[in-house]
Amino acid sequence: MSRIHPTFNCNRTKELFGEGHRSGPSVFTVWKRSSMSFQGTDGFTVFDEYGGLAFRVDNYSRKIGGCLGDGLVLMDGTGDALLTLAPKVLSMQRVWNAYGGDCTGGGRSRAFRQFSVREPWKFPILAGLKSKCQGGAEPEVKAEVFIGDARWPEYSVEGSFRRRSCCIRRRSTGDVIAKISRKSARANPRVMLEDEVFSLVVQPGLDNGLIMGLIVILDRICSGPVSPFMCCC
Fold first, then answer.
1. 217 neighbors 57 (Cβ within 8 angstroms)
2. From start to end of the chain, where are the E strands?
3. Measuring CA to CA, which residue among 163, 165, 173, 157 is closest to residue 214?
């Protein structure tokens, strides 16, 4: 099996969490597998470009991580809880919320909500007219990210997450702030790894934890049976 992450190096910790200066983008290898290698677990293990463990999500039941469960907890490499990710049940607009820390036992409130992810409202007739006027050149927005209680989205997701080909764009400027792509094997760059392993590149000056939380939510949205409310693929 090809190595999915580089050799371990612990000197990236301060840069990863904003304690050190970094001028270039942060590059992560995302492995869609829990670091707790027990049968039936479902989660994420994320390595930085030097092989250090950056983020993890350990979920013991895919049903619990779905729409009716207690949420998923995004942790840093040491196991400290960063975000609790949970769907908003019975929402017409299909919303996932991210709360600071571990809120799986309760304590979720607007005061603790860091951001929310929503599927845009879709009106087929208007969307068709817009596409025709623009010649179909504008990428379709698959999801929108609202920071705190903001009424307008800060970021949008474009492309196909399921195919590991999408980007996160800042709405105010149109700049791409993060990109998800297929990852090639280290031994042979022409050989692409399975979809369970992919690359995440985040531009400097951004909250890597927020971006990774968004990635986890996108995975749930695109998993179909896990989230019957929407599919963002």
1. no
2. 26-31, 42-48, 53-59, 72-76, 81-88, 95-100, 113-118, 141-147, 155-160, 165-170, 176-182, 197-202
3. 157
Residue 164, SS3? coil
Among candidates 209, 208, 220, 215, which has minimal Cα distance to 87?
Answer: 220
Length of the chain: 233
Quick one: pLDDT band at residue 1, thresholds 50, 70, 90? very low
Share the mean pLDDT of the chain.
75
- pLDDT above 80 (res 32): yes
171-190 burial string, b = 16+ CB within 10 Å, else e? eeeeeebbbbbebeeeeeee
H helices then E strands: how many in the chain?
3, 12
| Residue with the two structure tokens 């040491």 | 78
CB 28 within 8 A of CB 44: no
Per-residue pLDDT tens over the stretch 57-79: 987 555 444 444 578 999 999 99
192-216 mean pLDDT: 91
Q: Which residues contact 78 (CB under 8 A, 6 or more apart)?
A: none
Contact at 8 Å (CB) between 181 and 168? Answer: no
| Sign, Cα dihedral of 140, 147, 200, 163 | negative
| Tokens coding 51 | 């092989």
pLDDT digits (tens, 9 = 90+) for 79-106: 999 999 988 876 656 789 999 988 877 6
Please tell me the pTM assigned to this model: 0.76
